[in-house]
Amino acid sequence: MSYSVVKGTRDFLPKQMIKRNFIFQTIKDIYQQHGFLPIETPAMENLSTLMGKYGEEGDKLLFKILNSGNFLEKADTAATTDYKKLTTQICEKGLRYDLTVPFARFVVNHRNDICFPFKRYQIQPVWRADRPQKGRYREFYQCDADIIGSNSLMNEAELLEIIQEVFNKFGLDVVIKINNRKILAAIAEMIDKSDNLTDITVAIDKLDKVGMDSVCQELLSKGFTAEDIERLKPVLLLNGSNETKIATLETLFEGIETGKKGLEELNKLLAIVKELKIANIELDLTLARGLNYYTGTIIEVKAADVAIGSVVGGGRYDNLTDIFGLPDVSGVGISFGADRIYDCLEQLELFPPTLSHTTQILFINFGEAESLYCLRLAKKLRAEGISSEVYPDNAKLKKQMAYANDKNIHYVALIGENEMKEGKITIKNMLTAEQSLLTFEQIKALLLSPTAHSLSF
Prior knowledge:
Layout: H1 14-33, E1 37-38, E2 44-46, H2 47-50, H3 55-60, E3 64-66, H4 83-90, E4 91-95, H5 100-109, E5 118-127, E6 139-148, H6 154-170, E7 174-180, H7 181-190, H8 197-204, H9 207-210, H10 212-221, H11 226-236, H12 242-252, H13 257-275, E8 281-283, E9 297-303, E10 310-317, E11 331-337, H14 338-347, E12 361-363, H15 368-383, E13 388-390, H16 397-406, E14 411-414, H17 417-422, E15 425-429, E16 435-438, H18 440-448
Helix pairs in contact: 1-6, 1-14, 6-13, 7-13, 8-10
């Protein structure tokens, strides 16, 4: 009998974890090369920390945790038909929706323990009560990097550089899309709908998923007129080079100061990016990333050859710590979606063929005396950085060899009475079936050679 896991969550076998750890380590290494420092925050946060930071849509996707004990004891039973009111009475905590809001809370709490600008990275799971589908999970890992305490657009450029470096390492072709929240605010102002900016961003953020007709219907349901939508359409459908789009927006935003500021930031960022020779940067005016806390640059990355949604998202936030009582601390960050990156690399067969963290040598167990002898040798090999195992049971040789094959162990050591007397080891190459009688030092040299553990899955 098998027991199913919760929809939107998964078990990972060792082979999958090796690939996942390759993703995490690649991203972590590049973060560290850029001077980012690691932190962690709890899986649970108070709902007062989480609620209201992601917009109405995000609040609905928060996993709430029931209070301990008799959670109905202090609840107003008359309110049981009012979902929102009842939730506040029986739930005080929730699973984190992302890593950015907890990071803002972290910065406020530890502002005297860190130096600004503070460059942090964080690789941990997050949870969303979303409808599971391909590339969308209820539990998934984010690999975040943020720079907080600086307004410089050099920070955005550095994050774009990191994105390029990571995907170059993976061999994955991507398109990096950027926009600016000030430009979106200017578009809303252009059609006299500044008070409805959130409605606009939530709707157009779905454009590539549901199409223009559905976006128009959603806007109509929010009180926009057909005339409003007709004025909006040419901007959302604007195409051409980044320079062409910017030139058109400069004309449309005449007299709109927010729009001018957004275009100024965008031009400065593109100039820095050009110096860094970062390719495939596309200005996408439909990019909104419906999170309420973004105030400037918005970033989204999509795989060029896999239809799977965004693999990186991020942006500038000026007021997030202000919510927690620390004003005037601007930040910008990105988040790599490790699970979607995994799916892309798997589908395109881009994982390194030699990727393996398996045991390098297995010592066969021929009995009590022999196994004790092997334990001492395995310990010496591990001290040299060579992963080694001794089979725990004096089982049939066929069973022990099958274990080695199942774990993709390249070499097997066979030590019987004769080998112990001579102080040598019979070693078998499991790929070629060749056997050799070698000294410990010869085996150590062999296993430390670059080709000793180049096994593929």
